[in-house]
Amino acid sequence: MTQPSDRSESPTGAGTGTGSGDRSVRLAVIYYSSTGTVTELAKAVADAAEAAGAEVRLRKAAELAPRAAVESNPAWAENVRATAGIPEAAPDDMLWADAVIFGSPTRYGNISSQLKQFIDTLGGLWQQGKLADKVYSGFTASATKHGGQETTLLALYTTIHHFGGIVVTPGYTDPSKFADGNPYGTSHVGGPETPLDDEARTAAGVQARRVVKYTRALKAGLSAAG
Asked: 106, 64, 60, 100: which is closest to 82 by C-alpha?
């Protein structure tokens, strides 16, 4: 798997990618993860998007929790150390991207405060209309089967509607979606002791390819329309 630091070929972070095809789609995967599950989902989404021909920036939301809280949980502390090389998300990543796939663990049926804080810094870009007309999608994870995965993604998409963004979800557009059962986005059940399974990785691939496909089509259509 391509390491996160290898996705950038310049100080601005434009991904190099290794997939074949049209490289015109610029995709930002922006996520928050505490104990590492969403980190692994983010990497799976980013790799699938690169394989589909997109330039990818993998970015994490800044940690807001006190260091004592992080260090009190070995899995949390290890994820912080393991992802030290992944750049933190910045407003420039939103400007650069044609499409953005956000990732967050569930927090009481909503996105994490860390990802929300990053989104809340984008008010200036929103006021200027610079977040509109991009493609958006989302993925999540929870420790239990009914831990709020669908409401987390729906809450995220409420924000996208305010952006004027174009939501592209996987839906039931691939036979594999009837196995994982989540039409709203990729999701996984389990914590650090439950690594991603083939079902989650397949779902990540379906979602990433669909986002790249329709972002490419949207760009081509807008370009043709002048």
From this structure: 60
